[in-house]
Each structure stands twice: as C-alpha cells, then as structure tokens.
Amino acid sequence: MKSLSWLIGLLIVIGAIPMITHDVTLRETVFIILMYIALAESLNIILGYTGYVSFGHIVFYGIGGYVAFLMIQNYGLNIIPAMILAGLFSALVAYCLGLAILRLRGAYFAIATIGVNEAVKALITNLEQVGGAEGIYFNIKVYSAYGGAEHAIWLSYYLMLAVTIAVVIVSWFVKKSKFGLGLMAIREDEDAAITLGVNTSKYKTLAYALSALFPGMIGAIFFFKNGNIEPESAFHLTKSIEMIFMVMLGGFGTVTGPMIGAIVYERIRGFLIVSEMFKALHIAISGIILLLIVLFMPRGIIGFVRDKIPALRRFVE
Amino acid sequence: MLDVWIDSIISGILLGLVYGLAAIGLSLIWGVMKVINLSHGAFIALGMFTAYFLFAFGLNPYLGVPIIFALGIILGIAVYFVALHRIIDAPELSTLLSTFSISLFIIGLGTFVWTTIPYAIDIHVGSISIGNITILGTKVIAGIVSIILTILLYIFLYRTKTGKAVRAVSMNRVAAELMGINTTRILALSFGIGIALAMTAGALIATIFPFTILSGGVYELKSFVICVLGGLGSPIGALVGGLILGIIENVITLQIPTGLVPFIEFTILVAVLLIKPSGLLGGEV
Amino acid sequence: MRKILVALAVLILLSSISVATAKDEIVIGFTMSQTGKFNSESKEQFQGLKLWADQVNAKGGIYVKSLGKNLTVKLVYYDDESSKDRVQQLYTKLITEDKADFLISPYSSGLTASAAIVASQYGKIMIATGAASDSIFNKGYNCIYQIYTPASRYLTGAIDMLKAVDPNAKKIAIVYEDSKFAKDVCKAAKDYAEQNGFEVVLFESYAPGTTDFTSLINKIIAKSPDAIIGGGHFADGETFAKQLYEKRVKVKLISLLVAPAVPEFAKIGKAALYVTGPSQWEPMVRYSPEMAKKLGIEWFGPTVEEFVEAYKKAYGYEPGYHAAGGYVAGLVLQKAIEDAGTLDTEAVKKALEKMDIMTFFGRISFDTGEYYGRQKGHEMVYLQWQEKKGELVKVVVWPESAKSADLIYPLTLKFGKETTETPAEAPAKEEKGPGFEAILAIAGLAGIAYITRRFKP
C-alpha cells in the first residue's frame, strides 16, 4: 500500500505543476508523459504480468480513438461518456478477440496481434464512412461545447491525468490480487498453472480485456485533443513497439517500472529529436539504446536498481 | 479480357516467387532459431540499396546477386553475434526487440544517408508482348533467379553436411549439440543465409519497382503473411505462400478495389493462425 | 527517499520550461519534410520560403508601423518526417515553446490539415502553401489562408482540354492516390467529367506509397479508356507513368497530378513524353504588373523574371511551382503585416481578408464565406512534356491564353515513333538479355553453393 500511495503522490505532483504554473509547453510535455505512462502500464498487464507479447496492442488505442471520435462528431456526445464507451468497446473487442487468439502462444500470438492491427487498419482505410485513409477532422465548433479549444485541451489534460492515476491503481491492485497471482503463474509456466487449477483461458482473456480498456480511453482523449484521426496514426505499429520499449526499459512485471520507463523514454526521445547533433540520427540511436537494454538490462531499470541497491527494494513494486 | 487475366496471373506468379524468396529467409530463421526476425524488412531495403549502388558502379544487378548474397551472409553472421547470441535462449520478447532494434538502426542510418526519397534501378531487359499481354523482362529474370536460389537452398539443406546440420538444429537444438554439432556456428550461418535471402529478394525487387529505405517494411509484412500461410519454418511452404500471395494481389484486384488487398492479406494471416497455426502445408525444415 | 523522487520529477519537468524573449524579430514557424515521402517537394517549398526570408532580411526586415521599426524575419522549423503525428506535435511546440508569431503550413494537404487544427486551436494565422485540398476549409477554421488553387479547380482544365482537342473522346479512367489532396481533386474532376458528357469507366484509388501498379494497369487495359487522369504526389505519379509506358498502355491522354510538374519527372525518359499535368505555376507564365494594372489590382513583390533569376542564383536551377509557392507564402504574409502595420493576429487577419493582389505567382485573394480562407484568385496552368532537339522539355499547353506550345495529341504517337525507329532491335534484346544474365547468375550461385559446402560445422 505504501508504494502505491507513493506512485499516486508522484503522479499528482507531476500532474499539478502545469496546472499551477499554467505553462502550456509544460502541459504538452506532461500530457505525453502521462499518456506514455498509462499506455505502458496497461500493456504491462498482458505483457508483464501474463507474459503474452501483444505486439499490436496499439490497435485498442486506435479503436477507442475512432469510437469516441465518431460519437463526438456524429452524435454530439460529450467527451467523458464517449471516452468511457470507447474504453468499454475496446475491452469488449479484446475480450472477443482474446477468446480466439489467446490460444496461440509465444511468437505465434505476437504475429497474430500484428496481423489484427494491420487488418483493422486496412479495413478502416477502406471504409469511406469512417473517413478512409485520410481520416476525419473535427469541425472546430465541436470545441465550443467545452468553452472553446483552449478549455477542451485543458479538459483532455485533466482526463488524461485521471485515467493515468486509475491505470496505476488498477495495475497495483491486479498485481496484489489472486487474479494477478494467477496471471503470473501463467507467465512462469502456463501448463503448470493449468495443472494447479488456474482457469488460464478465463484469466488471460480478462487480463487482455483489462489491458485494452485503458488504451481505448487514452485513444479517445488523445484524438479528441488532436482534432483529427486517421488510420496511419491510430494504428501505427511503431507506437506499439514504443510501448513495449517503455515497459522493457522500466522493468516488466512491476508497477513502478513502466512508469519510470515511460518518463525516461519520453525524455530521451524529446532530447534526441531536438538536439542538433543527434536530430538526424535519432532513429538509429534509439535502435542502439534499445539493443543495449535488451542485451544488458533485460529486467529494465527497476531490475537493475533492485539488484544494485537493496535498500530501495521495498519502494519499488 | 482473357488476356488481362493471363497477364495478371503471370505477373502474380513471377512476383510471388520473389516474395517467396524473401519469406524463405524469414522462415528459415524462425525454423532454425525460433526467432522472428523483425529486421527482415530493413535488410530487404539494404539489399535494394546494395543493388542500386552496384548498378551505379556499372555492375549488372543480376551479376551482383552473388555479391549481395555473400554480403548478406557476412552481415547476418555479424548481426547474430552482436544482437542475438547472448539472448538466443531468452523469451521471444528479447529476440523480437533485439531484431527490431537492428531494424531501427539500419533504417535510421539509411534515412540519414539516403533520406527517404525513392530510388530506382533503371535497367531495361526488354519485355515479351503477345497482344495485350506484356510481361517485363525484369520480372521474368527475378522469378527465375528466385527459383534457382530456392533449388540451391534445398540442395544445400538436403545434400550437404552443413545443411543437414542446419536441419538437425532446427529439429532439436539440444540433441544436435549432443551429436557434436557446433550449434553456434549453425545458428550464425542460418541467420546469415536468412539475411542473404532477404537482401537478394530486395535486390530483385529493386530491379522491378522503385524503392525507399522504408520500402522493406511492406515486404516484411508480406513475408509474415506468406510464412504463416505456408507454415512458419517451412521454406517450400514459404515459396508456395509467396505464389498464393502474388496471385491474390494481381488477380483478385481485377474484381475488387486494390485498397482492400492488405485487409484480405492480414485477415488470412489471423485466420490461418487460428485454424491451422502450422500453415497450409504445415511442416518443418 | 520521497523527497529525492519528487525533486527528481520536478527537475525532469523543469528541464523543458522555456524562457520568452524580447520582440525584435518576427518568428515564423513551420515544419518541412526533410525525410519521408514528401522530401523532394518540401525541399523546394522550403528553398522558396528561405529565399524570401533572406531577401527580406537583406533589406533590413519588414516595417511594422505600430512599433515604428523594421523587424527581421526568423524562420524556425523542424523536420516533420512527412508524418501527421509529428506535424501536430511540432506545431504545438512552435506555438507554445518557440512563440511563433505566424505559421506557414507543411507541404501536402494531409499534413496541412493536421497543422491547421493545431493552428486553429491556438488561434494562430497559418499561410497554407503546398496544400490544395478544399476540405481543409470547411471545418470552421478562421485563421488558415490558402495560396494554391484549390483541388476543386485542379484537374477540371484537363477535361476542358480533352474536350477541346478531341470531341470524340468519351471514356475516362480516374486512378488516384488515396490521400486527401488527390481524393478532393479527383472527386471534383469526376463530377466535372460527367457533367461534360464523359463516361468515367474506372474510378479507383491506390494506397499511398504504392510501387506496383500492375493490377491497376491491367484493370485500365480491360476498360480501354481514351484518357487516364489522376495520380497523387511525385513518387507514385512517376512510377505510375513509368509502368503505364512499360505496359504499352494505349490511351490518348495522360494527365497526372504533381509528378509531371516536377523537373525530375524527365528522368523516366520516354515514359514522360507527352504526359500532361496541372501546375500551379511555371517559370514561363506571363503574369506582369501591366496585367495587374489592367485588372485594377495592386502588384506586389518581384516579377516572374526577377524571381526565377534570384532562385537560379541561389540554388543553381530553375524553380518549379513548389518553390514559387514557398516564396509567395512569405510574400503574402509580408504584405499582410505591412498593410496591418502590426503583428496583432486580428489586424493581420483583416488585412488578409481584404487582400487582392497580383504577384509573380498570379492573383491572390481569399474566400471569406463558408470556405473561409480558401484561395479564389489563383488559376492553374497545364503542361506537357515534349521533345525538343532530342531533349525532354516542359511546355504550357493550356489554357489557350497562357500556352507556350500546342498540345501533342494523341499520346500514342510516341509508340508509333518507336516501332518505326527500331523495328528489329527490341525483340533481339529480349531473347539475349535474360538468357545471358541467368547463366551468369547460375554460375555465381553455384560458386556460393560450393563455398558453403566447404563450410563444415
């Protein structure tokens, strides 16, 4: 419990700074950091706890984004119910999908998730009704319901903060619960878990649905703020891999890890893109960093810290 | 109308052979190493650029094939020792990410050096025309080279001692090790051959279509579909999968909008995985 | 421990706070596609804009009445990687962090639409150049101003041209890139063609980044149209033209977006011959101060010759319309600031609304109705690649009033020429080429096989 209040405290502090200083630049940075944290924590439930490599996890973010966007654009729904609907819809899709593809293990599952993401992307690209390849754009008047674009953006910021806090709390409780224990049993040895009486297919399907719920909501907020949505940015496979990267960087299977991973990743990326020296080579450098982490820090920053500094162990979960 | 169909089928087969070649590389790596090579596309692109620069230096890209193949083996072995050797027994996530990081590195560097503007190899070997059917010479040669390489790969796998060792490792690495096979060398060589096939396929594609450093990604995704169709780990399956995909792309599109092709491809991918994960042909190396 | 963590978090965040600077320059922010598929067009646009900025700064800057002094222009830009995601991030950064006073759009309609929503959210003026799509302008934005002739009037001239040159032509195939711009253009062209009695036998899109047009071309052949119009941007248009030629598709007119207007299009050689395309501007256009006088509007900026000369001097080759569009975007902003006499957004907006000027690029004025900010003054020209003394050259063939040469029609003339010139050579090449190559390839592969055989475990 102590470590949870820690993380929440930290999030609130981070989230409050832009509100106090009213600094728009800072708000943008924190918004991205929060989004990364929430995405990484969600993915961690299926990837870190359960051990299933969902390589195309971004599909749920995209689906959520589209559902909310269409609701707001066509039916004039408020962002808050639209966001909740989007999350639930993503979770439902994941649940149904999970019943089918979670039978696959290891790399087969990874490939299937890539396939699902690409198939959904291709489908939406071909559906004129949802904007096709060029996507859809809000009429700027959509924001007037929230008192103008300025307020709408701040609202998205608060929502993102709220969702992030929710993700971290859920993630923490899952880890501490019997459910979480079941998931970790699946991760360590699925066949053994079955023998021990864990209803693995129910467990992992629920975990998959849960890990899709929040990305759906995050997608809704992000694209609401963004003002447009299109298949290429909603189902961008690279973003999926970025999520995995953040989880790995921080240390998977922990609650603190994805959070640290997301913050560090955002800062590294921000630095590389802006820095004169590395700007041109930022993709190549990200590649090298990723390789080094995979090779030499397989348990991420958290694993590293826990190994090297035993005193900190009780703070990092 | 009939000639358009024939034209499409022939184009589909020829292109399918080249897709198949790229996919064989992916399939071999998976079969032997149980690694999904996410850097496949990057190496396909690298093959394209190698062919381009050989051509720019006056070397015919078809004559360049052996050079590119050899370069591929060397690069592949190097990458194996840098990025894969340490984690070959780790969970698949590690190898997925390490091959992906190689891909990022190559593409990042490639983007820096060549930017992402399209390049094209301006080679003309004529074309064969009968009525409305026009088959480009470049496609014919690419198809032929793909067949030859596949045959050579089979000779290598089934007739040579090293090749047999590769198959042994793919069946059971521990047992192969116990039989005195130096598995590290076999793994490195297999990865090398896989990369070499990718680069060669890239070079052949480069003689037909324009390309950028990012083009490899498209063919990598196609390779996934093909491998799954033919069964991961089965080279001949990959070739058949390639043919199926090539024909789908060229023939079905006469009836439906071309934009739907990726949707069909990936739906097939997921469906095959669910119904028959061992692929339509289902087999091992 | 707690304190350390909190302090760390605060530190990380503080590292991204920026400090505002005093006002002695006009900051113009934009992104360009240094990488990605729009790389070549975007570079031209940037060079045009840069030339404008250099010229303005060489004269001491833009005079701002309310401040009573000249302010120099500072261009702040980033690489958007031709990606919409990056565009939105970077325009937010340009507005919030770099405190840009005005914005210029990125290249292409898709990226501009993404930038436009950010600009509108923050209420910043953005001059949209290199973006022709109409659908950006019916989204209720009120601070985006378009330089290019919009998509709805982009290819309609090609249809007028076809109708004028060959009243018997009836069937048109429209094949276009699935992008905002090409879609807007081709939908408008389709309606226009049908209104003019043409039958649109094929109306199909292809994915951005397509390199293999085989199946589309087979579809076209099956429908045997008189004309093919469509395309998208440079790379796909070039490839499409090349593959149409390789497959010997016998249509009478090909008119493609963007690609034919770019000088590199000539690289595909014979495939480029007689291909036509719309262009926003060409170095041989004839806009002049006299013309402005006749129309009773003001002339602003350099003449066509002055611009072409200056561009050639700076970059060593003749500008295309992307470059001209970049330059004019700066020019329009300059005029609006000078007219407004202040950097205040509302005042500059008023100046832009009122603007009706003639420049070397043509006439510029903006719609203020439902499509607020859409270009309504500027007109397209149509060009064709023709052969002069064995070299491929661009000529303007439409409209009648602006043309520098006659349209060569039908396009199939180029196939006729070929067969009479080299009747025997082509088939001989076919047989020899592949066989010879294949044998050598086999030899090489056999060598590799031998080497790998020697490599024993």
SSE inventory with pairings:
The complex is a heterotrimer of chains A (317), B (285) and C (457).
Chain A: H1 2-21, H2 24-49, H3 58-75, H4 79-101, H5 106-126, E1 136-137, H6 149-176, H7 178-188, H8 190-195, H9 200-226, E2 228-229, H10 231-234, H11 237-250, H12 256-274, H13 282-296, H14 300-308
Antiparallel strand pairs in A: 1-2
Chain B: H1 2-33, H2 40-56, H3 61-84, H4 92-114, E1 127-130, E2 133-136, H5 137-159, H6 161-171, H7 173-178, H8 183-208, H9 216-230, H10 235-251, H11 261-275
Antiparallel strand pairs in B: 1-2
Chain C: H1 2-14, E1 25-32, H2 39-58, E2 62-64, E3 69-79, H3 84-96, E4 102-104, H4 109-122, E5 126-128, E6 144-146, H5 156-165, E7 171-177, H6 180-195, E8 199-206, H7 214-223, E9 227-231, H8 234-246, E10 253-256, E11 276-279, H9 289-295, E12 298-299, H10 304-315, H11 321-340, H12 345-354, E13 356-359, E14 362-365, E15 381-388, E16 391-398, H13 413-421, H14 425-454
Parallel strand pairs in C: 1-3, 1-4, 4-5, 5-6, 7-8, 7-9, 9-10, 12-13
Antiparallel strand pairs in C: 2-3, 11-15, 13-14, 15-16
